[in-house]
Write a structure and sequence with these properties.
six-stranded antiparallel β-sheet; 24 strands; 15% strand
Length: 684
């Protein structure tokens, strides 16, 4: 949103003082104008974010599809899209770049200053009208590949990301501005020297290796250059230093980088010397005054200045002291008023970890009333004697420091605990009906139901390890899955890798120490097949009774991943109005999310994907991270065919009519035929 202030700015945007008002008034008006413009820009979701002419209804659908997996994105009103400006909008997630490339009129793209993740596929650059692209200040990574010529592109800024290389730079023949600074690019992009039109080039802060100036575009055509903090070799002459400045070559090379004799780039530029002092030139009587008289005059003025400063400081100090005394007095009064309340709160604190009442779940209160001796039953370790008191101790009194973040489960709070024998478990409080057991059911009925639930054992099902019944409070023990859930791997970890470094200093992905990811196609296919097997097993019947177990809430947050990235279905056993056919639909939507990498699937988005798959264009919505992982090798066509076939599985499972949907057992067979799984894979 542009805001103009005619009293201060002329048509060119220059500052003008049209009227002879006092200087402080101009400053106040200027501050008001700046603050107003900042506020207006920060809250703007105006059509300027998506600028275009009339028509182009299809462009709005393309934009919506491209940002379907991006959180905090709100589609502005737009027609035929020529400019898409969304800087600093707190956007997170992955953009479907392949879909964005279908905007035939898109000329300007600005997504800078967000937290976008993933990679930019080479096919994105086929957009025919692209002229300016700015994706700086995000968390994009991988190799930046240009596989199709983009001669119209004039400006490209990818600084401040996690790119590891640039391939196909020679295809950007029309480029005039290129900024790849502050990435992880270790080699000068091949073909960079052929970009003869580049006038601004920033390669700084990459630890980049290459020859200077041989690997760069002709220096004669450059107006700006920065190769600082790299590992160049070669020769830098004095002319280059004079043209681009000393700052362009700070730590720019290793011992093989030689500066010619007439170059001063080896040493930092000298600090500017202070301006010379000039004799008094004001004219008048002072010109004829004696030196002693001038000295006395200066001393008198200096003394008056010191006195003035001292008086001002004294007044300010007294004012601050009075404010401090007032604050202390108010604080003392508040403390006295609240002291009685604090004493009463201390009496009401439970002894389970000293938590306030609202932080202690009902099960801890039940234990405090005498249920602490309630036994914990572990199916695989019947000789281990544990009680509710042991669970309370292992979870810090069911306190918040042990509570796990809620990720879409339908039961009560969950807590992580480490039991004797280094047994890592999740203790989940049963809230509502579970396995057909309600709150008022007697302990014997509940124990029988939990034992039946524990008989559901399959490699792709999260097993129930045990339970504890303390009066009306019931707890279930499950295996703790350190890798987390599928949603986290698809949408929260950069490029699906938990081991990527975080430039902000937070090591939020160091949980996993291996280099595995779910960006490769075999892993994603194995996850889809594993989920299908687990769901088919549930649909076979409750503990062999022939009565199907309907999940009713199959979403990525309920798919946990083991150490081998094998999926396990959790949060089953709840009563649900959903039928097995409803589970099949949910599985189809989950497959679409798994293959496209886009989050937030509802009926509208499923219908959108089904239309694309029906039109034989499924490859356009495949997750670009998976396509880039294929690397364009000889197996690329096979991988692409398999991904499209899996999308068709999602299409079949999401049929509008339930009777037209396949059974999960049939889905397992189709997925196995699409890609032959290793012999060691689990089977139903």
């Amino acid at each position: 949103m542009l805001v103009s202030f005619s009293p201060l700015f002329d048509a060119s945007g220059s500052l003008t003082l049209a009227s002879p008002m006092p200087l402080h008034s101009h400053l106040l008006l200027l501050l008001l104008a700046l603050s107003t413009s900042v506020v207006a820009g920060s809250v703007s979701s105006s059509p300027s974010a998506c600028a275009g002419g009339g028509g182009g209804g299809g462009d709005a659908a393309i934009v919506a599809a491209a940002f379907r997996g991006v959180r905090n994105f709100h589609l502005p009103p737009c027609g035929a899209v020529r400019e898409l400006r969304l800087p600093s909008r707190n956007l997170t997630g992955a953009v479907a770049w392949a879909a964005l490339a279908n905007l035939s009129g898109l000329a300007v793209l600005d997504l800078s200053g967000n937290a976008l993740q993933g990679a930019i596929p080479g096919g994105f650059w086929r957009a025919p009208s692209l002229r300016h692209v700015d994706v700086s200040g995000n968390q994009l990574g991988g190799a930046l590949r240009v596989v199709e010529a983009s001669p119209r592109l004039e400006s490209l800024n990818v600084s401040g990301n996690r790119f590891t290389g640039v391939a196909g730079a020679e295809a950007l023949a029309g480029l005039r501005v290129l900024d790849v600074s502050a990435n992880r690019i270790r080699a000068v992009p091949q073909g960079l020297r052929r970009l003869a039109r580049v006038s601004r080039l920033d390669l700084s802060r990459n630890a980049m290796q290459g020859r200077f100036p041989g690997d760069l575009p002709p220096l004669a055509g450059l107006r700006f250059l920065n190769v600082s903090y790299n590992n160049f070799s070669g020769v830098v002459d004095g002319g280059a230093v004079k043209k681009f400045g000393h700052s362009a070559f700070v730590h720019s090379g290793n011992t093989s980088l030689v500066f010619s004799e007439n170059s001063t780039a080896r040493r930092p530029p000298p600090p500017p010397s202070p301006p010379p002092s000039h004799p008094h030139r004001s004219g008048g009587k002072n010109d004829t005054a004696t030196p002693a008289r001038r000295t006395r005059t200066r001393s008198r003025r200096k003394h008056l200045s010191v006195v003035t400063v001292a008086v001002v400081c004294g007044v300010v100090s007294v004012a601050m002291l009075l404010c401090l005394v007032g604050c202390v007095a108010c604080g003392v009064l508040r403390c006295r008023k609240n002291r009685g309340k604090e004493a009463e709160e201390e009496k009401r604190k439970a002894h389970w970890g000293g938590k306030d009442e609202e932080e202690v779940v009902a099960v801890a209160a039940a234990a405090a009333k005498g249920g602490s001796a309630a036994p914990v039953v572990l199916f695989e370790r019947p000789l281990m004697e544990l009680t509710l008191a042991d669970l309370a101790e292992a979870t810090s009194g069911f306190g918040r420091e042990s509570q796990l973040a809620e990720r879409g489960g339908r039961s009560g709070a969950a807590y992580r605990a480490v039991l004797p024998g280094d047994m890592h478990v999740v203790v989940r409080v049963v809230d509502g009906v579970m396995a057909g057991v309600g709150e008022d059911d007697d302990p014997a009925t509940a124990a029988t139901a939990f034992r039946d639930l524990a008989r559901l054992r399959h490699p792709n099902i999260l097993p129930l390890l045990g339970y504890c019944i303390a009066g009306k409070e019931k707890l279930l023990l499950y295996e703790y899955m350190e890798k987390g859930d599928l949603h986290r791997w698809l949408h929260e970890l950069p490029a699906g890798r938990p081991d990527m470094e975080d430039d902000t200093g937070g090591d939020i992905w160091e949980v996993a120490e291996d280099k595995r990811s779910i960006s490769d196609w075999p892993t994603r296919h194995r996850i889809a097949l594993g989920i299908a097997r687990g769901l088919a097993f549930l649909h076979q019947g409750w503990a062999g009774s022939g009565r199907p177990v309907v999940h009713g809430h199959l979403v990525p947050t309920n798919i946990l991943l083991g150490e081998d990235l094998e999926p396990r279905i959790s949060d089953f056993g709840h009563p649900s109005d959903t039928t097995p056919e409803g589970d099949v639909y949910s599985f189809g939507a989950l497959v679409l999310e798994l293959i496209t990498g886009q989050a937030g699937w509802d009926e509208a988005s499923v219908s959108w994907a089904r239309g694309i798959i029906r039109d034989q264009k499924g490859l356009d919505i495949v997750d670009p991270r998976v396509r880039d992982e294929a690397g364009g090798g000889p197996e690329t066509s096979t991988v692409e065919r398999e991904m499209v076939e899996c999308l068709r599985v999602g299409y079949l499972c999401t049929a509008q009519s339930p009777e037209k949907r396949p059974t999960m057992q049939q889905v397992v067979g189709v997925l196995k035929d699409i890609r032959v799984a290793p012999a060691s894979s689990s089977s139903t």
